[in-house]
Amino acid sequence: MRARDFKKEEAICEASIDLINRKGLADTSMSQIAKQANVSPATIYIYFKNKEDLLKQLYLRIQREASQSIFTGYESFLPLDESFKILLRKAYQHFLRKPEHFVFLEQYSNSPLIEKIDKTEINDYFEPLYNLFDRGKQNKIIKDLPNEMLLSFTFYPIMQLVKYHQSGRLRLEYNQLEATLTMAWNSIKKDREIDSFISFR
Amino acid sequence: MRARDFKKEEAICEASIDLINRKGLADTSMSQIAKQANVSPATIYIYFKNKEDLLKQLYLRIQREASQSIFTGYESFLPLDESFKILLRKAYQHFLRKPEHFVFLEQYSNSPLIEKIDKTEINDYFEPLYNLFDRGKQNKIIKDLPNEMLLSFTFYPIMQLVKYHQSGRLRLEYNQLEATLTMAWNSIKKDREIDSFISFR
Amino acid sequence: MRARDFKKEEAICEASIDLINRKGLADTSMSQIAKQANVSPATIYIYFKNKEDLLKQLYLRIQREASQSIFTGYESFLPLDESFKILLRKAYQHFLRKPEHFVFLEQYSNSPLIEKIDKTEINDYFEPLYNLFDRGKQNKIIKDLPNEMLLSFTFYPIMQLVKYHQSGRLRLEYNQLEATLTMAWNSIKKDREIDSFISFR
Amino acid sequence: MRARDFKKEEAICEASIDLINRKGLADTSMSQIAKQANVSPATIYIYFKNKEDLLKQLYLRIQREASQSIFTGYESFLPLDESFKILLRKAYQHFLRKPEHFVFLEQYSNSPLIEKIDKTEINDYFEPLYNLFDRGKQNKIIKDLPNEMLLSFTFYPIMQLVKYHQSGRLRLEYNQLEATLTMAWNSIKKDREIDSFISFR
DNA sequence: CATGAATGAGAATTCATTCAT
DNA sequence: AATGAATGAATTCTCATTCAT
User: Fold this and answer.
1) Residue D192: its pLDDT value, please?
2) CB A146 within 8 A of CB A152
3) Is the Cβ pair B110, A106 closer than 8 Å?
4) Do the beta carbons of residue B197 and residue A179 sit within 8 Å?
5) How far is CA D24 from CA C25, C27, C43, D101, D166, in A?
6) Does residue B198 surpass a pLDDT of 60?
7) In a shared domain, residues D89 and D179
8) Which of C111, C149, C200 is closest, CB to CB, to D107?
């Protein structure tokens, strides 16, 4: 019996991501993937049930990898704002390092395929960030807003900047990234009376 | 290719958007569109050169319509913060009213198809917002940051909230939207020394 | 609009029957059929929903044609034995004339595909023969046996002889066929006390 | 290709017959067989040269088994009619006991695969029946007809009744079977002048 | 002997597009 | 302008078979 060749699985994944990013989900066929991965079309079906499954597994493992890269080594005893910036900085840097992953995630999660993903698993990946928000809210350091709002003004703007970076429209230098992280933090930190009138309860 | 029956063209566009939103760009075929629009596949080719052209035209007309809906009636003599909030509020409301358009735009612009779009045309649509940013920066009311950054902390967070709304995860009520607009404005308005160290030049 | 080309449908049917008879249900592909029928594979799907449907339609139309060929012009006022022989003779001759039809029917109805056929429709095709049996039983001319038994000793032996004919193992001449029909009739006609002990009630 | 593990070979055969009967020759694949037999696809090729060979071996061994079951213990010194009925009764009962075998044989022998079978071997299996017919003809007890005709009115009607039994359309009870055997015998026994005009020479 | 991995060829079906009316 | 028929090319996926262990 021949053992499973993890190199082959890797090649399939890489080829898939590359092709999907360049040609799109709509215009990437299993045979193209096979060709680029240097395997037979039939081989893909040893590692993945079908095309839908292949795409789903890609999405999940990219999310998993991002989550690990962002949240491992995360020290929760640091001051909240430090922790916050560390996480966002790592997120930014992770996706700068893995632009293909970022592009794939964006394409996948803006397609209807996303609806077949079990959301609870994905939410687990964000757990540490949610915990941070919750602690901040309890300690009256972060505005008492739903996590979705907090993400909208912190995580997603950063992700938007990753996009700009990758398109070449705006590439932040180190100082600028730091200033941006501060800006994100300021937008959710509870430091002035003016914020008090925002209420979601 | 020259349009005649406006009803038919409309039917084709609506069917396309609906199918693409529900099944995805990858899984929507010309014959499916034809069937749902109650026309012959051949008829689509009277109004659109081919599939790529159809998708492109859809994208452009949705962008155009959004731009019109957001920027018409916009009074530039109002105070900047008022103008700013008006625009964002209109953007939010427009896409709440046209969720199919929003979903389509997200899917299209996160796919490689977006690269074939002439960006200058799209930028025109955002012109008024860019002007507003520029005026604000000149008058030292808005932080002296690239427009991409300003968009990342104002327009895109709002768009993210539209997404949350549509997925049902978080539906803002009127007061909450207003608070959010203030939050967006606060994040880019230049009102304290602390901001001064952020520099992009 | 182009009109449906009945020649094409005919060509598809003929090619299918020929290939299935020569290579078997298992080894006949849609593209082989298309090639032999001189149409594109896609064209078959204009006339038939899918492969299963194609085969089913073939079966049904061959049965229908056989039934028409055997039962049209059938005069029910003749003596029962005459009627009986006429029908069997026509059945024998029909399938000798259409050996491809006979072979196809045998292959199809001995495969699991037969289970998806609505049996009531097929039974309708045999109606006149069943009626004849029933009349014969009422008039005490034919043994009082279930139609299945009567068929087993009349229709099916004749069909078996068609098979032998086609394989070349035994080709009946006219006189021999007539003798055989008499033999079939004798086997079910009620003419001697000896039969009386056979009872199915 | 040399067999070792008898259990495995049996499992492969049983799985094949079951699948072919349920799904058909066309829709039964080697891997399906392997899965149902709880072996690797590669294992099948240890016992059988290829798929065609597998099917052929199945056919041959089922025929062989039927022949043994029907003809062993057959006492040729009994009166002809007794012998005749014994054989047919055994045939009927054998296939009632092994419906899967019957169904497989019907499907196989009505497909073009049958043409690759060496007919002389099969005929050997029927030898005792042919001998019986020949003796009967010599002794002027059985009509002087070709064996094919005699089979058509005796063996095949009985087989047709097996089919009806299995489909549930007509299940003979013991008495009815006996009556049927008499009917079959009557149809070929030479007992009246009327038969004399049937001639095949 | 036995296996699961691996595969090129080919399966059924649909695709985007054009044709003929 | 509008259509359903028609199609060659391409799709996803499975097949029978062989390989490497």
Assistant:
1) 57
2) no
3) yes
4) yes
5) 9, 12, 26, 14, 17
6) no
7) yes
8) C111
**B68 C-beta less than 7 Å away from strand E:** no
The residue length of chain C stands at 201
Distance from CA of C46 to the nearest CA of D (A): 23
What pLDDT, in 10s, does the model give residues A91-149? 999 999 999 999 999 999 999 999 999 989 888 888 889 999 999 999 999 999 999 99
Positions on chain F within 7 A of a protein C-beta: 1-21
Cβ contact A50:A150 at 8 Å: no
Taking residues A145-167, report their average pLDDT.
95
Chains B and A touch (3+ CB pairs under 8 A): yes
- How far apart are alpha carbons C180 and C89 in whole angstroms? 10
Closest CA to C65 of C105, C23, C37, C33: C105
Q: Are both B44 and B59 inside the same structural domain?
A: no
Q: Do C64 and C28 share a structural domain?
A: no
Contact partners of D by the rule of 3+ C-beta pairs under 8 A?
A: C
CA distance A61 to A64: 5
**Nearest residue of B to residue A152, measured between CA atoms:** B157
Alpha-carbon distance of B12 to B37, in angstroms, equals 5
The total of other beta-carbon atoms located within 10 Å of residue A191's CB is 9
Which residues does B contribute to its contact with A (CB < 8 Å)? 21-26, 106-107, 110-113, 146, 148-149, 151-153, 156-158, 160-161, 164, 169-170, 175-176, 179-180, 182-184, 186-187, 194, 197-200
Contact assessment for residue D107 and residue D21, using Cβ atoms and an 8 Å cutoff: yes
Q: E strand or H helix at A132, and its extent?
A: helix A119-138
Strand E at less than 7 A from CB of A4: yes
Min Cα–Cα distance to chain B from A3, Å: 34
The closest of D167, D162, D188, D163 to D177, measured between CA atoms, is D162
Same domain, C58 and C6: no
Count up the domains in chain A and report the number. Answer: 2
Please say which residue of A31, A48, A65 terminates a domain. Answer: A48
Orientation angle between helical segments C99-109 and C80-97, nearest 10 degrees: 100
- Is residue A81 domain-shared with residue A37, that is, in the same domain? no
Which residue, among C10, C20, C5, C2, has the nearest Cα to C105 in the 3D structure?
Answer: C20
What b/e sequence results for D101-138 when a residue is b if at least 16 CB atoms lie within 10 Å of its CB, and e otherwise? bbbbbbbbbbbbbbeeeeeeebeebbebbeebbeebbe
A5 with A102, same domain: the answer is: no
Dihedrals phi, psi of D189, to nearest 5 degrees:
-75, 145
Whether nucleic acid strand F comes within 7 Å of the CB of A3, the answer is yes
| CATH code (residue A27) | 1.10.10.60
Cβ neighbours of A89 (radius 10 Å): 17
Domain of A163, CATH number, reads: 1.10.357.10
Q: Which regions of chain D are under pLDDT 50?
A: 1-2, 196, 201
Residues C151 and C170 in one domain: yes
Residue B87 CA to residue D129 CA, distance in Å, equals 97
Task: Identify the pLDDT of residue D76.
Answer: 66
Q: C38-57 burial by CB neighbour count: b if 16+ within 10 A, else e?
A: ebeeebbeebbeebeebbbb
Rounded-to-integer distance, Cα B61 and Cα B59, Å: 6
Best of A17, A88, A101, A110 to substitute, by most chain B Cβ atoms within 10 angstroms, is A110
- Residue A21: which domain range? 1-48
Strand E nucleotides within a 7 Å radius of protein CB atoms: 1-21
pLDDT for C178 beyond 70: yes
Convert the pLDDT of each residue in C74-88 to its tens digit: 766 788 999 999 999
* Contact residues, chain A to chain B, C-beta under 8 Å: 21-27, 106-107, 110-113, 146, 148-149, 151-153, 156-158, 160-161, 164, 169-170, 175-176, 179-180, 182-184, 186-187, 194, 197-200
